[in-house]
# Entry
Amino acid sequence: MRLIAENLGGERGGAAVFSGIGFALEAGQALVVTGPNGSGKSTLLRVVAGLLPKAEGRVLLEGGGEEFPSIASACHYLGHQNAMKTALSVTENLRFWREFHGEGRLDVEEALETVGLGGIGHLPFGYLSTGQRRRAAIAKLLVSHRPLWLLDEPTAGLDKASEERLAGLMTAHCADGGMVVAATHLPLGLEGAKALAMGEAFP
Ligand SMILES: Nc1ncnc2c1ncn2[C@@H]1O[C@H](COP(=O)(O)OP(=O)(O)OP(=O)(O)O)[C@@H](O)[C@H]1O
# Structure
């Protein structure tokens, strides 16, 4: 499987945010996207995910076979929002996403244990602290069967131990043939990751 971007351009509100972005990512590789505030990291991830139209160029997934014929079918996008229903329990939220995305290697209980949230699956998601919410959103990655993780500032709100745990999970995902594209301001501890530096913010 291969994720390829060529001469990719993105815009917001009709104004160019970035242009001429290119990268190629093989199965098992990670790409860390850095750049100042407003340089277009989130926009790039959303364009790759297909949540925003691209302004120019192309981005595609090759070799996904019948199971993953497109980026949309292969990706799990984790944005700034965690995409969980606050009134549903943590377990109910994760069950929904497991069904929606396809069943990942871990079941809901195992994923919660893995992110250090064992025993609180019964709580409404809205009761969780900021960092616990992010950890539950990371558990969402583990219960889902999606090879391409698109992560927008995945460590936001995480404590040091959770940051290190996430680094291990991303490394394991890549070792398992997955791919990660992560926008970040902080080092993610991803050894051997490719790097993409977005330009200065438009004035
Ligand atoms: N809906 C919108 N309409 C107009 N401009 C927008 C819209 N959404 C974002 N922008 C602008 O697009 C630019 C890129 O924003 P984006 O969120 O992609 O940057 P970023 O690199 O992820 O920033 P940060 O590091 O602060 O998260 C910013 O200048 C932002 O103000």
User: Anything to note?
Assistant: The helical segments are 41-49, 71-74, 90-101, 108-114, 130-143, 160-175. Residues 67 and 200 are 38 Å apart (CA to CA). DSSP finds six helices and eight strands in the chain. The domain at 2-197 is CATH 3.40.50.300 (Rossmann fold).
